Automatic annotation (TrEMBL), chains A, B:
Homodimer. GO terms for molecular function: aromatic-L-amino-acid decarboxylase activity; pyridoxal phosphate binding. The keyword Lyase applies. It comes from the Eukaryota. PANTHER family: AROMATIC-L-AMINO-ACID DECARBOXYLASE (PTHR11999:SF167), GROUP II PYRIDOXAL-5-PHOSPHATE DECARBOXYLASE (PTHR11999). It comes from Hypsibius exemplaris (Freshwater tardigrade). Keywords: Catecholamine biosynthesis, Decarboxylase, Lyase, Pyridoxal phosphate. CDD domains: DOPA_deC_like. It is an enzyme of class 4 (lyase). The lineage of its organism: Eukaryota, Metazoa, Ecdysozoa, Tardigrada, Eutardigrada. Transmembrane segments: none annotated. GO terms for cellular component: cytoplasm. The modification N6-(pyridoxal phosphate)lysine is found at residue 303. This is Aromatic-L-amino-acid decarboxylase. Its cofactor is pyridoxal 5'-phosphate.
Length: 483, 483
């Protein structure tokens, strides 16, 4: 493909993307294909000689689209949203063209420097403490990770290295393995599985702690666990608090947890993967009260801030605690020049050596939407979830199970969890909507996100109507069976 | 930005990308900026209201480009190459638009299924053993990781879990920590720092082993280490062999290492990050003789196979050994349907839960170049490195230090390593070329990659002429100093 062909094909692709996203309501939200469908549509091996663009492009509709779950359909209410936006796509195109890996300042100065700038911009937007800013000139700063899981892994490994160092100072005869056997990390029972995953990868014990009636991890729960575990000879070292849990969008109490972690010298990490984007609106920041006490804070602009995957923003109060644990020195990498402002070598803060210039898409999004544009986007989506909540409350057959906090509604048919699961299967099998469930007090409930970027009020009403229709048929079927 | 604006801006960006890549020879390969340059060019905070596309777009040349190291300039001879190609960029645009995360089959069937297909296509192209293919219907298969570092981490964690299980069967009273203290992994002293990094992240001991006169790790070296370490009470469990080392593009002896690992029950992983792409040409496959004995094999299409970062292809003889170690169950994820062909849930084979559809760009590249087009690309670049080798051999002041194997030339000025470093600094400071060094027998030598995608014979001559000119001036300066 030469440059002229690329110019033509690129225009076709840009138009295809615009058509796809603007008309996404017309597509069935989840595919009807069976497992293994795609292999039947393509050759067993790569072609020996190159094919024409037209043939490849035509196969997008023939091969790919029949098997796509359309995350940006307004009928998609599953998981948490995945972001896409026109400015982010443009930023990614440029990043792909430059394709210069920014593992050190020298390897691509613009990539490293832009990342420090957009991380400071984001920190300002969220109202994070200034010790997380590069411009503060302390040991703190931010880095773009691939995912919240990677952020949790980085911070737990940093905390583990610190805990081992400190324990060895007291017990020089203990080995790393003996100390690791005693290390214990905490998170709420409602935390995302990436919390438990981080402990698995770091090979330390993880303990899920009970939450209060608002699904929030409180200080008392943590304090009790620390006391029990210390008495059992364990070494508590790390707490992962969640701001906006996956099942119910609940918020752990950072003020209480922070005070305990400071007193007990535990690392406190905040996973705000989904909800962090909402903190650009001051009215939601009460949920991050206490953030000044945390050691690290992470959220995913690729979930709700219109930046395409992958882009997970992680701030550290002391960046050196990660780089010390993970120092990544590759002999062929030229050292940073001494001149000017010292810049981080971002390879020391992630699993990989190489890295894309992910800050480009962030920069494009922040500039083209502006802070107010993004605030408006978040508020609109929260409004849609609240609108949905009202619709649920108007139908006696249903009940809200958790008050809508941001863009997630947790509700159920007034029936057993098992009945709710059957109704959900019915709805999902209809391919008219796509929903997932959560567990609450041992019972399955509906979990409805309002987060696809083009969703509007009419879409919310449309989705609710489908749920009502399916519920009517479902209840009729249940009642017929009983007869 | 609405759809019409995106259509216009997208065309501008596509044209910009084509212009950038086609005229990249005109840009200074490394930037002249000082650290901290970028922050001075942008506001301290994100704009309150959205800006016009024209202003954002204009800042690409004003803010970004002055600080870019142009990896695709034919004057770029550092590190190993980073791939970019027009078909890959088009694939990424589509993937960004769909933006559906393929962590399970249900979450995006097309993403999961296309990945199984392109991994099989790549395995066929490289001539890998059939037990790595999904179509073989065994426990093997492939997965796209973000980097070779992540592939090493996944495999060492899989091997560690297996070793702990097996050791516990013999010593039920030993704790995980006590066993981990005894685990030891091996790699060659010439291995990439990601090998040592993987041991750091997995918290096991790593040992670099000496290589032969061709920088190759041989069986005798491994056998001796295993014997020594077992005698010292350690538990050898994992070997990372390199196909195409970073400093010299050397190849570890897989036949010898494979036989030992099978006899001694060690996991053998092959990191062919750079050189793996060359195995699509049968004439280079003698370097992977013995691959039928390895447990896992990884290479980076994002280095040399024209697929944009990130795309690191990892094959496993038994995928369950990774998923068992890392099982990633998120309650809100709907289980795979039972019907049809069983598909992997790719979240079990990586650090993150979320994942982009990276197979799209692979599919576009393989189809639009075809196997022969990609073979031609590899052979051209190997030819350029060999052409460079001949030029070096014609100048008595220089000598080749390692025969050119693929696209890397290791040479030096006939002088001390220290003098070579000073000459290299002079060349890099001129901003006319960008080179890095390697160490050989304790001395610094030049490391010259021919790998930017547009490099041609005239470019190689041009670069060599610059090196000669700078050497002449350098030697004159040295000689003047002595007077």
């Amino acid at each position: 493909m030469d440059a002229d062909e690329f110019r033509r094909a690129g225009r076709e692709m840009i138009d295809y993307v615009a058509d796809y996203l603007e008309n996404i309501r017309d597509r069935q939200v989840t595919p009807s294909v069976q497992q293994g469908y795609l292999r039947k549509l393509v050759p067993e091996k790569a072609p020996q000689t190159g094919e024409a663009w037209e043939d490849v492009f035509a196969d997008v509709e023939r091969v790919i689209m029949p098997g796509v779950t359309h995350w940006h359909s307004p009928r998609f209410h599953s998981y948490f949203p995945s972001a896409t936006s026109y400015p982010a796509i443009l930023g990614d195109i440029l990043s792909d063209a430059i394709s210069g890996l920014g593992f050190s300042w020298t390897s691509n100065p613009a990539s490293t420097e832009l990342e420090t700038v957009v991380m400071d911009w984001l920190a300002h937007m969220l109202g994070l403490p200034e010790h997380f800013l590069f411009s503060f000139k302390g040991p703190g700063g931010g880095v773009i990770e691939g995912s919240a899981s990677e952020a949790s892994l980085m911070t737990i490994l940093g905390a583990k290295a610190k805990a081992i160092r400190e324990t060895k100072a007291k017990h020089p005869d203990w080995t790393d393995g003996q100390i690791t056997d005693k290390l214990i990390a905490y998170y709420s029972e409602q935390a995302h599985s990436s919390a438990q995953r981080a402990t698995t990868l770091a090979h330390v014990t993880g303990r899920g702690l009970p939450t209060d009636e608002e699904q929030s991890l409180r200080g008392s729960s943590l304090a009790q666990a620390i006391e029990e575990d210390r008495a059992a000879g364990l070494i508590p070292f790390y707490v992962l608090a969640t701001s906006g849990t996956t099942p119910h969008c609940a918020f752990d109490n950072l003020t209480e947890l922070g005070a305990i972690c400071q007193a007990e010298e535990l690392w406190l990490h905040v996973d705000a993967a989904y909800a962090g984007s909402a903190f650009i609106c001051p009215e939601f920041r009460h949920w991050m009260a206490g953030v000044e006490c945390v050691d690290s804070f992470n959220f995913n602009p690729h979930k709700w801030l219109l930046v395409n995957f992958d882009c997970s923003a992680l701030w550290l109060k002391d960046m050196s605690l990660i780089s010390q644990a993970l120092d990544y020195n590759c002999p062929i990498i030229r050292p940073n020049p001494d001149s000017g402002e010292a810049m981080p070598d971002f390879r020391h803060y992630q699993v990989a050596l190489g890295r894309r210039c992910r800050s480009m898409k962030v920069w494009f999004v922040l500039r083209m939407y502006g802070v107010e544009g993004l605030q408006k986007y978040i508020r609109t989506q929260v409004g849609l979830a609240k609108e949905f909540e009202k619709l649920v409350q108007l139908d006696d057959r249903f009940e809200m199970m958790v008050p809508v906090r941001l863009g997630l509604a947790c509700f159920r048919l007034k029936a057993s969890g098992e009945a709710n699961m059957r109704l959900m299967k019915r709805i999902n099998d209809s391919k008219r909507l796509f929903l997932t469930h959560a567990m609450l007090n041992g019972q399955a409930i509906f979990r409805f996100t309002a987060g696809a970027s083009r969703t509007n009020s009419a879409d919310i009403h449309h989705s609710w109507k489908i749920i009502q229709e399916e519920a009517t048929d479902f209840l009729k079927g249940e009642s017929d069976q009983k007869k």
